[in-house]
Every structure is written in structure tokens, then in C-alpha cells.
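Record 1 of the preview.
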Amino acid sequence: MASTLPPKPTPEHSTATAGGMAEAGHARPRGLMRWLLTTNHKEIGSLYLIFSLTMFFIGGIFALVVRAELFQPGLQLVQPEFFNQMTTMHGLIMVFGAIMPAFVGLANWMVPLQIGAPDMALPRLNNFSFWLLPVAFTLLLSTLLMPGGGPNFGWTFYAPLSTTYAPPSTTFFILSLHIAGISSILGAINIIATILNLRAPGMRMMDMPLFVWTWLITAFLLIAVMPVLAGVITMMLMDINFGTSFFNAAGGGDPVLFQHLFWFFGHPEVYIMILPAFGIVSAIIPTFSRKRLFGYASMVYATAAIAILSFLVWAHHMFVVGLPLVAELFFMYTTMLIAVPTGVKVFNWVATMFRGSISFEPPMLFALAFVVQFTVGGFSGLMLAISPADFQYHDTYFVVAHFHYVLVPGALFAILAGAYYWLPKWTGHYPHLRLSQWHFWLSVIGVNLTFFPMHFSGLAGMPRRIPDYALQFADFNLASSLGAFLFGASQLLFVLVIIKCVRGGEKAPAKAWEGAEDLEWSVPSPAPLHTFETPPDFHPHRQH
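->
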């Protein structure tokens, strides 16, 4: 067996071969083919991020259609059927097309750099994982042009709305979700293989940066729950096209079964969208506090605890379906229990900043906004966990407020923080400071003006997913709609920041931020196409 292995290259030889691939016999394709065929983790990471930004603006336009309709009662800018399609498509595109691909793009770019790997473990699979996504979302968006319109049953696609009463395009929606799910599973396999096999010599698991840890745990979550989603949408497909009755009570099925299956996927999915955010914030706060992260090991264990508990809380979305009392109590307490490891994380971030030499650069501003506002989302989540109270809050705008406080100033702000933090490494230039600050402050004002009033309209009894409402909710909705348009417009500043950053600006050194210690800051800025062809010199004491 040993005789069939190629001779082990010397460091000089390996550098020459890997670095010279482009110039040697393997001439790199140019133009469109370069991007279609690339197996380089940095280029694929960039593709994910560009795709995510595109989907973010498409999903954002759909959200603005919703907010324009709700600007005041009695407007009817769009038909109620189209309004329902907009709420559904906004949710699907933001969750599956914007937030998740953004985190996968950050993982593609940064995980190999942070662990000293030359690339992802499975580069061709990486390319395939990405190119499934444009196919999936082109298919999903095309449903809007089909007879009967696109999906109109909410992003949670509850049966029987999504089966017995669904538009004909639902089969296309199911196929697009299958394709996106395959992409997620393959990407997760790749990330696990990379982290477990390609760490720099001397880097133990407990030496890895927290962004790598959170992504490792997230990838296991994806592999565990994506097949459940695949199963439930396949059962929907059977109900629609083949006469089965999985979710049809008239045929002996049970619509509540759908909710159990969907939320068994859906709640870990929420943590899939927030755990990498924890990792990004755990990299940024120590850097700009110029201190080591407080409680590194407890952060790792808290992340794992959140992931495990996320499988034990799904029915808190279903308190009103008539669960047995013992089930309501169980899910109420497990949901509250998740606040403990989450609280450990918030405590550690605050303790890291305590008596630190803090500088308020754009990444730190977004990270701080994340900590404060994600905590607000956590508190409203605790209110929803209390089952008797949830009977009042369920399916009101209070739930919309809670979910968006977790995902917008939570996941999205962490993505923006990560982008500002790593842009110098990607482009070789610092982001424009004044524009970045304007982007931050307008985003914070826009987010809170949009979603904070929703708590009150929900507590006052306004149901979600309605195209019109009673007069007593008018003021709250006016504020929310104004905030939404402000927030949407402010994201154009982010695009301007990126364009200016790519085209030029203040040059960034290899170590772009004074307190940054992880391995990615040991390579030049911008990062060359091939990095760590020879394993880097890793010193554990630098990390934690």
C-alpha cells in the first residue's frame, strides 16, 4: 500500500507546485468559466456572499411591499392573495437565501484561514454546493410568474394550507427547497471534514477560534435536521400529487403531525442561523477590547449545550394546538433552559469588554448592537416560552417582533460585523469609516423603529399575516413601515462601502486590527489566492 503513495514533497516543492498551479499546465479559466469551475475556497466564499447580498435585496423588496401595504389601514396597494405571496417569499428568501448562504460564505472564506488549512477538504463538492443555490432560488422565484401565483401559505408552509388548498406552483416550491437542502447538507459535510482533518499541526480542538467551533456545531445541526425537512416536504408532495393523506384529516391524517415534523427541523434551524453569529461576535469583541476572550471553554460548551437543547424545544411553537399538559410543561421548561447557556455567552462578552481598552470601529459597533438587541429578542422569547401567556401572544405581531429581533439585529448584524471585520483581509483596504458609521446608525435606528412597535401592536391583539387591520393599530404600523423603508435604504450604503473598499481606500496591513490574534491575520492583505500551502507556525498561547 505504501509503495503506491506519491513521494512526500519538501516544503519548497509544495509551495512551488501549489503556488504555480495557475502558471503551469493547469491554466486557470478566465471570465465566466473561472467562477463556474472554481474550487478555491476564497472565490466560492465570495460567490456565496454575493449571492446572499442579492437575495437579501430581493427578500427586502418583498418585505417593503408588505410594509407599504400596512402603511395605513384600508390602502390595498396589492391584492390580499399577492400580499400573502410576498410574506411567504420574504420569509423563505431571507432564511434560506440570505442568512444561511451568508454564513456559509463567511465559513468558506475564514474557516480554512483560521485553522491554517490550504483550502476546504472537498473543493469540487464545495463548488457543487454553491451552484445548487442559484438553481433552487431561480426555481422558487419563478413560481411568482406561474398560474395561481407563488406559495401563499407563510414561510412555515403549514398543512393543509400548503397541501389541500395550495396553488399549483407548490410542487416547484418543494423541489427548490429540496435543492437548497442538498446544498446545505453537502456544505455541512465539507465544513466538518475540513475542521476535523485540516487543522494546522499543533492546533488542538480547544485551540480553534470560536467561529470555527460554532460552525462545526452548526454543521452537525444541519446534517441532523435537513433530512427531516426533506421528509416533511416529500410527504407534502405525496399529499398534493399522489392522493396520500399524511396531513389531511379527512383521509385519516393529522395536520398537527406536520407541525411536529416542521418545527423539529425549524427550531434547530433558528440556531443554525444564530450560532455562527455567536462565533463572529466572539472574534470581534476580544479584538476591539484588546483582551483575550473571557471563558473560552465555557463558550464552547455553551454552544454545544444550545445545539443539544435546540432538539428538545420544538413544540413551544405549538402550545395552542392542544398538547397534553405534561408536554406543555416539558417544552416550557426546556425552552427556558436554553436561556442559561445563552446567558453564559452574553456574560462572557460583557466580561471580555470589562476594563478593556475598547475602540469603537465599525465591526465593534455592529457586535455591540448585536449583544444588546439579541438580548431583547431573547427576553421576548422567554415571554413566548410561558405557555399560558403564549395563548395570547401566539400568531400576533409580538411573535414577528421577537423573531426579527433575533434575526435582524441578531444574525444580520453579526454578518455585517463579520463583513466589516474581514473586509481588509478580503480586499486589502479598510472600509470607508464615515460611510460605515452612517450605515451602522441608520441601520440601528431603522431596525428599532421597524420592530420595536410590533411588540405593542402584538400585545394589543394584531394578528400576523393580514393585509389590512383595525384603526387602533394604525400608529404602530405607520412607525414600523417608516422604519422598514429607512432600514432598506440604509443597506444601500453598505453596497457603497463594499464598492469603495474593493476599488481602493486606506491600505490594510496583514494584521488589520490591533487586537486581532487569529491565524488569518498572519497572511497578507488581501489574502493571496493560495494560502498555507505549507502548514503555518501555530502557537496555542497566542489564542486563548
